[in-house]
Design goal:
Elements lengths: L2 E3 L6 E3 L3 E2 L12 H13 L4 E3 L8 H12 L6 E6 L12 H15 L6 E5 L9 H12 L6 E4 L3 H8 L4 E7 L11 H8 L2 E5 L22 H4 L17 H12 L8 H10 L6 E2 L6 H9 L8 H19 L4
Parallel strand pairs: 3-4, 4-5, 5-6, 6-7, 7-8, 8-9, 9-10
Antiparallel strand pairs: 1-2
Length: about 325
């Protein structure tokens, strides 16, 4: 699989990585054996980048990755984690002492002395403009607790603020055919600054797989049930902020645009990979089959101009008014 450099870091990552939110919690029950099988299938398919967070399953996702990598010491996997969502979301909590404590916990969970990449996990907006926060992150690098740091953001405005920080190696942002606003300013600014772009929620919480209907029922402990209107965290994280009924209809239309040999999910992933400035895209997977299919998108032919135009037209007609003003 092709690899790209994560901005200023110099570190390389597979163009399709693996998001591991679903291996911790918030997507229904997860079996440990199946979780390890997903990691194995991803690696066998050429994935070299795992994205996790200390809050996924309250550390379970990090611990699962550590278990897998201990059994496969020959692998060279870049593991990015996140911190900050296990406390009240107020700027005052984003200080060096807390960073060290959160960092210590993630290092224990992952079984490493130094973390490859730590990202602030969608903190309160004022955090991105606070010099002391980034001084503290620089201190973690100087103390060799972390190799580099980045941010995960909810909005394009937060991304642009972070990109201006000289120490930021990467910005993780929602980008998919139902969330195109980052294409306008964020990706060009990141490219100019040498900042990597990690594209998350690439399938709009599964909508773009084309598998769901208006009658689909998700488990009670799946965020696609309990956070559909932003009850527990930012609504944009669930179905990319698109109203579910609208999203299902638009996803059916999107699936019709898939060229021969592509699944709808692979169409979405291929679209993201082709966007200038994207470093890696991190779809999740509940099964080994999903992990292999996601990784296979990296080897598919580039999408034609006609297909790209049709996807843009769909977004403009059905989706843009719901999401562009908020994120």
């Amino acid at each position: 699989m092709d690899e790209r450099v994560i901005g200023r870091s110099g570190q390389r990552a597979s163009v399709v990585g693996l998001g591991t939110w679903q291996l911790g919690a918030d997507w229904g029950d997860v079996d440990d054996k199946e979780a390890l099988a997903v990691l194995e299938a991803a690696v066998e398919s050429g994935v070299t980048f795992f994205d996790t967070a200390d809050v996924y399953g309250d550390g379970r996702s990090e611990q699962t990755i550590a278990t897998f990598l201990r059994a496969r010491p020959e692998l060279d996997i870049f593991v990015a984690t996140k911190m900050g969502r296990r406390v009240d979301q107020i700027p005052e909590n984003y200080v060096l002492d807390n960073f060290r404590a959160w960092n210590d916990r993630s290092r224990r969970n992952l079984g490493v002395d130094r973390l490859d990449l730590v990202q602030l996990h969608c903190p309160p907006t004022p955090v991105y403009s606070t010099d002391e926060v980034f001084d503290a992150l620089d201190t973690l690098v100087a103390e060799e607790r972390i190799a580099r740091y980045g941010v995960s953001v909810e909005t394009c405005e937060e991304a642009l603020t972070a990109i201006a920080r000289p120490g930021v190696a990467s910005v993780q942002i929602i980008l998919n055919p139902f969330r195109m606003k980052p294409l306008r300013e964020v990706l060009p600014a990141a490219h100019e600054a040498g900042v990597g772009i990690i594209a998350r929620v690439p399938l709009a919480s599964g909508l773009l797989s084309g598998k769901y209907t208006k009658d689909t029922v998700f488990a009670a402990n799946d965020h696609r049930t309990y956070n559909r209107h932003g009850e527990s965290f930012d609504q944009g994280e669930t179905f990319s902020g698109v109203d579910y009924a609208t999203g299902v209809e638009a996803a059916a239309e999107f699936a019709e645009l898939a060229p021969v040999g592509y699944t709808p999910a692979q169409l979405a992933l291929r679209w993201i990979i082709q966007q200038p400035g994207v470093t890696t895209v991190i779809p999740g997977a509940r099964t080994p089959e999903q992990a292999r299919a996601n990784a296979a998108a990296a080897a598919l032919p580039e999408l034609s101009g006609d297909t790209l135009s049709a996807i843009r037209d769909l977004y403009d007609r059905r989706i843009q008014d719901q999401v562009a003003g908020r994120w």
